[in-house]
Amino acid sequence: MGKEYLGEFEELILLMVTLLKEEAYGLGICEELKKQTGRSTAIGAVHATLNRLENKGFVESYLGDPTKERGGRRKRLYTLTAYGREALVYSRDIRVNIWTQIPELAIKIL
Amino acid sequence: MGKEYLGEFEELILLMVTLLKEEAYGLGICEELKKQTGRSTAIGAVHATLNRLENKGFVESYLGDPTKERGGRRKRLYTLTAYGREALVYSRDIRVNIWTQIPELAIKIL
DNA sequence: AGATTTTATCTACAATGTAGAACAAATATC
DNA sequence: GATATTTGTTCTACATTGTAGATAAAATCT
Asked: Smaller CB count within 10 Å for chain B: N or C?
């Protein structure tokens, strides 16, 4: 693990990218975030965060092909890198480990 | 739940306060954080964050009595408020719920 | 009283969180 | 084939959090 930590929002965005797999792009992520957390965010916030995540090597992106749907600009699709996955696992492990020591927050693990 | 989210570091500090119970004060939290996460932070960072958490109502503080140990200034002791506990539980639930949908991150829960 | 210890407070700056406006690239329609 | 419409990204700016170091304050020891 590097010395870099994921910010709160960064982590959420990274989780949405992971969840959406092949369909992870700005607007879609924004909607999924709303669906998963109830949290409304401006699209600009999502893109700014995606850029930062890419600069730090947590995700990679490429331009998708135009879809047949109606019109509109091409999507920029994001995928998790190995480093990104590592960061998510690391963050999860730290939390689970701490929660375990706090009865009120502990999760029963098999 | 309010509209406020815990930042990444804020959440960690709040967890340390919860963990340390009656012995939660700046330096101690700093050490516990190191112990729990391996992360070294300047004491100023911890205090700044504690102040913000207090302003937002996640913790409360009071000055402790002088200890007999050697000398030194009195500790400012922090305790979690009901609102703080709520925020921790909320944050945990959101994450666990998302992880569950990602095979690679899922935790087996009883 | 002065030295030493423990700890908090203050001040600043960097990184992350957040929003909205401007812009670009598709398709549809006439 | 020009223009309206749709979908989506990029740009710019500012607020909030993250982070550090220096300074100051209270306590005990000698």
From this structure: C
pLDDT tens digits, residue range B54-78? 999 999 999 988 776 777 899 999 9
What are phi and psi for residue B14, nearest 5 degrees? Answer: -65, -40
pTM of the entire predicted model: 0.90
What are the domain boundaries of chain A? 8-100
Report the alpha-carbon distance of residue A26 to residue A16 in Å, rounded.
10
Phi then psi for B86, rounded to 5 degrees? -55, -45
- Say whether A2 sits in a helix, a strand or coil: coil
Looking at chain B, how many residues does it have? 110
CB A91 within 8 A of CB A1: no
**Cβ within 7 A of any strand C atom:** A 4-5, 7-10, 40-45, 47-49, 52, 56, 66, 68, 70-74; B 5, 7-8, 25-27, 43-44, 47-48, 67, 69-76
